[in-house]
Write a structure and sequence with these properties.
Blueprint (H helix, E strand, L loop, with lengths): L2 H18 L13 H6 L30 H14 L3 H25 L4 H13 L4 H5 L4 H21 L4 H17 L6 H13 L5 H26 L22 H11 L1 H8 L19 H20 L4 H19 L12 H21 L2 H25 L2 H11 L4 H20 L3 H21 L4 H14 L9 H11 L4 H18 L2 H12 L9 H14 L2 H13 L5 H13 L3 H14 L4 H9 L4
Helix pairs in contact: 1-4, 1-5, 1-16, 3-4, 3-8, 4-5, 4-7, 5-15, 5-16, 7-8, 7-9, 7-10, 8-10, 9-10, 9-14, 11-13, 14-15, 17-18, 18-19, 19-20, 20-21, 20-22, 21-22, 22-23, 22-24, 23-24, 24-25, 24-26, 25-26, 26-27, 27-28
Length: 622
């Protein structure tokens, strides 16, 4: 193969990656975790906030789910600015990152000793593989792409360090680890992968102390990231309970023994799909196994152990095998050990897929070299077929309705799919409301409620579905049959997350709704008590007083509602929404002059506040 042809290979691999997953550019709707981390995340809408992402873990999501991923959130903010929130810039960025990862994988494989043919085939298979589609198409899964990008940058630099390039390459390796850690917590394990590169390249000349010194800057970055997590989140790493789990279907209710037994039975599915990519879905079926000695779990772990042992034994003199398997293990280890609500996820396997491709690259080269011409044509056809499957799978992922319908077809017990389909119905209700079609709005909300009922039946201890049901019932209002159902859902959600102020505020809203249905003042008293109880567990917020005031307003006690908002302002919690609520109530109470002062404060803070402008226009003249 000529030098010109070899130099063109990274571009060919990048082009294959781009074409195979280009269907992501056709999507306009956000999917799954994209809703709270991208679409509804106010933090990413201002470029000026990017520096704060390095000390504000709450910028990760619109939900109360803090995570320290500053590089990821900064990239989302840049994409939001490029398209004013439209999905296309996000999708293009992810597609380009995937193409870059595929090209870098080719380069790293060659530098680790794989032949040109082997490195090219391995990178091409990774580029077009359908198992990578979820990481490319789901914007929130960009964390997995940036994790791999940082890992490959660090590996490329570490290879240069091992060959005597010295300090500059060590700093580049540390920079790669910084990108990976800033995108996902798994990045802290990458120094171990860099040590594996030293082992693979050093052979009999490997010196542990020298390897640690060479990996030192990257290790310092990983330790610094853990210290930052400890300072910002209160924990450096997760510490799952060894035993005593109560509900294996939820992350917090699954102990380590159950987690490992479950993963032993389920993880081989993803490795099998790396060979035969069928049955792909956003929420794959998982058998929750409590017995660590169960046959399925033991067979699963045994098969994976044999796979890795055979690979290491056969690849003792092949650095690409050692490093590839180390990368695969490092990517998988955190979500294998740490119980998550969704134990399996195709997007989490993105980096592991690259590690497997790197590990088999030496053998792929030998196979490609010995294949006759018809065999090579079959290999090309296989790559193209995988690309076609990726395009088909990606086209499903660009349409949330099709994506979740497909997930239900693969996993009929997917509570996540049902809850997400319910959210689509809520979005449709919002569209109907904007169009002024009240009947269609009510129909869509009732359809959403039916889907949430099914999700809760499958996962009764999942607080997300309970929360969604409370908000939905409150939105349907007291006149709707079944309004009182909001109360038990809110109470269960609070019992599942007793230290969450949001569950208490939702409980307050449910009690207010019950008071409106029954007319019993005790429900309104309970609503105020539930809202104000947030002051016992968290720093005071204006939202607490606004929620309590909403209960008194629904009861018809305007003076009590105004008094609660007065207390909020007196505490210095005078957010413009607090002022707006108070102005609205003051107008109803006939105190127009006081209302105008609050409205002026609202418009000074938020000049385009539509509600304040309308109230100011409606307020009686001085």
């Amino acid at each position: 193969m000529s030098r010109r042809a070899v130099r063109a290979l990274p571009l060919i691999v990048a082009a294959l990656a781009f074409v195979a997953h280009a269907s992501t550019l056709l999507g306009t709707a956000f999917l799954y975790d994209d809703l709270h981390s991208v679409r509804d995340n106010a933090a990413i809408r201002e470029l000026a906030r990017i520096p704060s992402f390095f000390w504000d873990p709450d910028a990760f999501s619109d939900l109360p789910a803090p995570m320290y991923r500053p590089v990821l959130v900064a990239s989302l903010s840049l994409c939001h600015a490029a398209g004013s929130g439209a999905r296309f810039p996000f999708a293009l960025f992810d597609l380009l990152v995937h193409a870059a990862c595929a090209a870098l994988l080719l380069d790293v494989a060659r530098r680790l000793g794989a032949s040109v043919r082997g490195a090219f085939v391995a990178a091409a298979l990774f580029a077009v593989h359908p198992l990578a589609a979820e990481a490319v198409h789901m914007i929130s899964a960009r964390s997995d792409q940036l994790l791999l990008l940082g890992a490959l940058v660090a590996l490329r630099a570490q290879i240069a360090v091992a060959r005597g390039r010295g300090c500059p390459a060590m700093l580049v390796a540390a920079g790669g680890v910084a990108i990976a850690c800033g995108a996902k917590e798994t990045g802290v394990l990458l120094p171990g992968v860099l040590v594996a590169a030293e082992v693979g390249l050093g052979g009999a000349q490997f010196r542990p102390l020298r390897a640690v010194r060479r990996v030192g800057p990257a290790l310092a970055i990983a330790l610094g990231y853990l210290l930052a997590r400890r300072a910002l989140l209160g924990v450096a790493t997760a510490a799952p309970a060894l035993t005593g789990g109560t509900d294996p279907t939820t992350g917090w209710g699954r102990d380590l023994v159950t987690q490992l037994a479950t993963m032993g039975a389920s993880l081989p599915r993803l490795f099998a799909q790396a060979l035969v990519p069928v049955g792909l879905a956003i929420d794959p079926p998982v058998h929750f196994e409590r017995d660590p000695l169960a046959l399925g779990s033991l067979l699963g772990w045994a098969s994976l152990a044999l796979l890795f042992a055979a690979g290491l034994r056969a690849g003792r003199r092949r650095p690409a095998v050692v490093v590839g398997l180390a990368l695969c293990a490092a990517i998988c280890l955190p979500w294998v050990v740490v119980p998550l609500n969704a134990p399996l996820g195709e997007h989490r396997f993105y980096g592991a897929l690259a590690g497997l491709a790197l590990a088999v690259s030496p053998w792929l080269g030998a196979v490609a070299r010995r294949l006759p011409r018809p065999g090579r044509a079959a290999l090309v056809a296989a790559v193209l077929a995988l690309g076609g499957l990726s395009t088909a799978h990606g086209s499903v992922l660009t349409d949330p309705q099709r994506a979740w319908d497909a997930a239900l077809a693969v996993n009929p017990e997917s509570a996540s799919a049902l809850q997400s389909l319910a959210q689509l119905r809520v979005d449709a209700a919002d569209a109907a409301a904007r169009a002024g079609d009240a009947a269609a709005q009510r129909t869509e909300l009732l359809r959403a409620a039916a889907l949430l009922d099914r999700a809760i039946a499958l996962r009764p201890n999942a607080p997300g579905a309970r929360r969604a049901m409370v908000l939905l019932r409150c939105r349907l209002g007291p006149q709707e049959r079944g309004a009182m159902q909001a109360v038990p859902h809110a109470e269960v959600a609070r019992s599942l997350q007793p230290k969450s102020p949001f569950r208490r505020l939702e409980q307050s809203a449910a009690y207010t709704l019950a008071g409106q249905v029954t007319g019993d003042p005790r429900w309104f008293d309970a609503a105020v008590e539930a809202a104000l109880s947030c002051l016992e567990i968290r720093e005071a917020k204006g939202l607490v007083f606004r929620t309590a005031a909403a209960a008194r307003e629904a009861q018809g006690d305007l003076d009590a509602a105004i008094a609660l908002l007065d207390e909020s302002v007196a505490r210095g919690l005078d957010h413009f929404e607090v002022r707006y609520d108070r102005a609205r109530l003051l107008l109803r109470a006939g105190r127009a002059a006081d209302a105008r002062r609050d409205l002026a404060a609202v418009l000074a803070a938020e000049p385009f506040h539509a509600g304040a402008r309308a109230l100011l226009h409606a307020a009686p003249p001085r």
